[in-house]
Automatic annotation (TrEMBL):
It comes from Citrus sinensis. It comes from the Eukaryota. This is UDP-glycosyltransferase 92A1.
Length: 337
């Protein structure tokens, strides 16, 4: 297995690895760079059956900042440079495969599972006659929209700001601003992940957070998070902070350094019957927002994109009030089920 070096990629790969090992008793070889493997190992029990293999990676060769072996807290230009630098993995990954085959007396690995960003792995798998699978860590709906947009480019065939996906009409209407660019005192949690976050520490203890929540009325606390990678600009963060304070709502905000809408958070919230305020920022998040808002009916979108102008008055004057009604209706619907 070879995931891209980001929490939203590594964690699903680890979950898949544990599932395959526990249900099929397969031997799992997990490939990544030295620092990432060190972090991942610290989050796993010593008895973990996963085998870790390091691929060499010299950040100096790629003009990356010190210790940049993953995307944590880095701006998008650095993340893009990191992604480009992963092409240097190819010869090292090929050698790892050769060594594995030699160690197994000529027996090939059953399968190579790699991240969607590592398409070059297919060539290595084909060269040695090994089955290759790409693991997409995001939601099926969002990536189905993404695929349709890339294949058909429907926005180029219309003058309208809104259009349908030719081979996926179930996705409803897509707006051009959903296209990714590449086409009172409340506790604020410093985002540093958790044990599930591949070896990171809490910014505040879970017990302290739980005790604070237990003192609040049922269904009275907002949870604010933009996921494990994306965050908003300083000006947007200030406006959101003032709007949250002016709303009078209790809230917990997971704060990352300023540089939206995390797919894992979205569906964890939905699993527990919690309505969502969406602020999609990048990639397939715009289409997840569509799905959860227009199709599932559990999301109200507050803002869209990293460059949108957000003012406190807009959020407090419309979104928060609208959300009050939305929350009430959603909770009534949930209780009726």
């Amino acid at each position: 297995m070879l995931p891209f070096m980001a929490q939203g990629h590594v964690i699903p790969f680890l979950a898949l690895a544990h599932h395959l090992e526990s249900t099929k008793n397969y031997t799992i070889a997990f490939v990544n760079t030295h620092l990432n493997i060190k972090k991942i190992k610290s989050s796993l029990p010593q008895s973990s059956p996963i085998h870790f293999l390091e691929t060499p990676f010299n950040i100096i060769d790629h003009d990356l900042p010190p210790c940049t072996e993953n995307t944590d807290s880095h701006p998008f230009d650095v993340v893009r440079k990191l992604l480009e630098a992963t092409l240097s993995f190819k010869p090292h990954f090929k050698k790892l495969i050769i060594d594995l085959i030699d160690e197994q007396n000529g027996h090939k690995p059953l399968c190579i599972i790699t991240d969607m960003f590592f398409g070059w792995c297919k060539e290595i798998a084909q060269e040695y006659g090994i089955f290759h699978a790409i693991f997409i860590e995001g939601g099926g709906f969002g990536f189905a929209c993404y695929y349709s947009l890339w294949v058909d480019l429907p926005h180029r065939n219309t003058d309208s700001d809104e259009f349908l996906l030719l081979d996926f009409p179930e996705a409803s209407t897509i707006h051009v601003n959903q296209l990714a660019s590449n086409f009172a005192y409340q506790p604020v949690l410093r985002f540093t992940g958790s044990k599930a976050g591949a070896g990171k520490e809490h910014g505040i203890s879970a017990e302290l957070c739980k005790n604070w929540l237990d003192r609040k009325p049922c269904r009275s606390v907002l949870y604010v998070s933009f996921g494990s990678q994306d965050t908003i600009a300083v000006s947007q963060m200030v406006q959101l902070a003032m709007a949250l304070e002016a709303s009078g709502k209790n809230f917990i905000w997971i704060v990352r350094p300023p540089i939206g809408f995390d797919i894992n958070s979205e569906f964890r919230a939905n699993d527990h019957g919690v309505p969502i305020n969406g602020w999609p920022l990048a990639a397939e998040q715009f289409y997840n927002s569509n799905l959860l808002g227009e199709e599932v009916g559990v999301c109200a979108e507050v803002a869209r994109g990293m460059n949108c102008a957000v003012l406190k008055e807009h959020i407090v004057g419309s979104s928060v009030k609208a959300m009050d009604g939305f929350l009430s209706a959603a909770l009534i619907m949930r209780d009726m089920k």
